[in-house]
Amino acid sequence: MKTLTINENYIFRRLYQRGKSVVSPCIVVYYQKVKGRKSNRLGITATKKVGKACRRNRARRVILESYRLLEPQMGTGYDFVIVARARAANVKMQAVKDELEKLLSKTGGISSPQTLDLSRQKDKS
Question: What pLDDT digit, counting tens, does each position of 44-79 carry?
Fold first, then answer.
């Protein structure tokens, strides 16, 4: 599945105003289901509260990689904006991935983490 990048400011603003959100200590996910679209769109932001440019870029890279690892399990037709919070620059990538997986399961964009763990265990046996 191909994920497109959101670059336009009006799409970010529309998701902030009209979309739903789920929150964790490291990230916030704004999302909206779009009918008729066969791919997802993703935008990642990090404010100056996260830190200087190096920390903001690291936070964005970690979030993007976490999303990329979860992408094969995701449904289609969603717009996502993921906002890095101040803690995102200091935590390990696995922690961000786990939080993103929990938040995306709440949005309906991915099946629940418990279901994924059970399917992984069955494949190994």
Answer: 999 999 999 999 999 999 999 999 999 999 888 899
Residue 90 falls within a domain, yes or no?
yes
Handedness of CA 97, 102, 99, 61 (dihedral sign): positive
Which CATH number covers residue 56?
Answer: 3.30.230.10
Q: Are the CB atoms for 6 and 39 separated by under 8 Å?
A: no
Give the orientation angle of helix 53-70 with respect to helix 93-107, to 10 degrees.
60
- Any domain includes 10: yes
| Half-sphere exposure (Cβ direction) of 78: Cα atoms closer than 13 Å | 22
Q: Which of 52, 44, 122 is nearest to 89 (CA)?
A: 52
Predicted TM-score (pTM) of the model is 0.84
